[in-house]
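Example record

One chain of 197 residues, shown exactly as stored in the release files.
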Amino acid sequence: MQTTLSCEIAQAAARLVVEEGLEYGPAKRSAVKLLALPARTPLPGNEVVEDAVREHIALFCADTQPAELRALRRVALGWMDRMAAFRPYLGGAVWHGTATRMSDIYLQLFCDDPKSAEIALIDHGVSYETGMLPGLHGQPVDTLSVGTLSPELGLVVGVHLLIYDLDDLRGALRPDVRGRSPRGDAAAVRQLLEPDL
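Predicted structure tokens for this chain:
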């Protein structure tokens, strides 16, 4: 059972996720600061924050969020088609349906050669930045980040390509703690968009 304090942190974090585009970890830590709580205050789990995000969207963004989510999924699908050789999977808020115009897109690429995706971007003249982001098991993973215009949203969306070895694909499709698929391939994203395609 969640404590009142845990719920307060989750609600504050949810507002930061929806309104500022923060990821769950940074949002929870920022919520603790905003609520003037001790730094060692226990944080709610991601499932609790996700529930709070869904509540926040239902209360404050129900009229705009569905169209924003569809626009982000279209951008994601475009990049998945573009990077099809690297077995792309969509994860995060855009996959789970909690994304807003402030959300970035996270695509996991499963490559025979870790440098091949970067070479593909270079060959197509795509500007990108390299970095590291938490990966499938919380471990840092090499990431290629690009900005791409969403005409529907009228803004540049961050697309993060997380680079994995092909062998990592086996464990990547295990259901999450709620029994859901944690990510989907291009066919699954098309299915989500089917009424609009």
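Notes: The chain has a mean pLDDT of 93.
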